[in-house]
Design goal:
By secondary structure, this protein is α+β, with helices and mostly antiparallel strands. The protein contains 11 helices and 10 strands.
């Protein structure tokens, strides 16, 4: 039995014994805790939930509750929740919840289980969420390293290798990944581009075809200097410096480029280009 399972068992027992005892236990726990009635309506949240999410009980019970869940995780969460309600079985999922203090999403292990009356009828639901961000990030890093090593080992050609690396990054550590390559004449082009959303990727690919990388593009300048840069808040000035005209600028702003890391790509001691990792506004910077 995991610590989360034990916490749920203690909460269900406390709920059956005494509401006051339950509330005191819920407030003492390090997890985010909430309960729902038999109809699935939220009726309690502990102070850790309020402090983390920035939502009161009343706000959490409204449609605003969905605002703190990562958009990419909501469909699977709702599917599993409906399944748990239908079967009165346990609910368990990993999902990202937004932190009010800085807008960052962190990974949580979320569990919910039915609380039953003595006669076996449903009294409500008890749920907890445990922060597992550090563990998920460590596992993701190790998995990415293993996957990249596999790509490099079986790469048939350079173009395919770069595209597969970009796709791996876009599925794990970033929303966007682009590979910039430097030509013999010093010109720079985008050789690979990846994003999980096909629609956004199609718009970006179209923009790349229409507008080649400018000689004074910030990434091109970083490649020339051989520097790594972290930009936690990509501003409009950066987009202006990368685009040709108002139409190009408008396309760039629609791509939701919120924070970025540019890392030089060095091959045989030559400045070959750069790897660019970008996250959108709904992801952790």
């Amino acid at each position: 039995m995991t610590s989360n399972d034990e916490a749920l068992a203690d909460l269900r027992h406390a709920l059956a014994a005494s509401e006051d005892r339950y509330r005191r236990l819920a407030e003492a726990m390090p997890q985010l805790v909430w309960t729902l009635d038999r109809e699935g309506r939220l009726d309690f949240v502990n102070q850790r939930w309020v402090a983390y999410s920035g939502l009161t009980l009343e706000e959490s019970a409204s449609e605003r509750r969905g605002e703190v869940l990562h958009p990419g995780d909501r469909p699977e969460m709702m599917r599993r929740w409906r399944e748990a309600q239908a079967t009165l079985g346990p609910f368990e999922v990993y999902g990202r919840i937004r932190r009010a203090a800085d807008g960052a999403y962190r990974w949580f292990h979320i569990s919910a289980a039915p609380a039953l009356e003595e006669n076996g009828e449903l009294a409500g639901w008890v749920a907890t969420a445990s922060d597992v961000e550090d563990r998920i990030r460590a596992e993701t890093s190790l998995t990415l390293l293993a996957d990249v090593s596999d790509v490099l080992a079986r790469a048939v050609d350079e173009q395919r290798m770069f595209q597969e690396v970009a796709q791996l990054a876009a599925r794990t550590i970033a929303d966007w990944c682009a590979v910039y390559l430097r030509g013999e004449a010093g010109d720079v082009r985008i050789a690979a581009l990846a994003h999980a959303d096909p629609e956004k990727l199609a718009r970006a690919v179209d923009a790349v075809r229409r507008y080649p990388v400018r000689a004074d593009d910030p990434v091109a300048q970083l490649i020339e200097a051989g520097r790594s840069v972290l930009d936690p808040h990509v501003g409009k000035d950066v987009l202006r410096a990368s685009t040709y005209d108002e139409r190009h600028f408008a396309l760039a702003t629609q791509l939701d480029l919120a924070s970025a890391i540019v890392v030089p790509l060095v091959i045989r001691e030559e400045r070959a280009g750069a790897l660019v990792f970008v996250r959108g506004s709904e992801s952790r910077p």
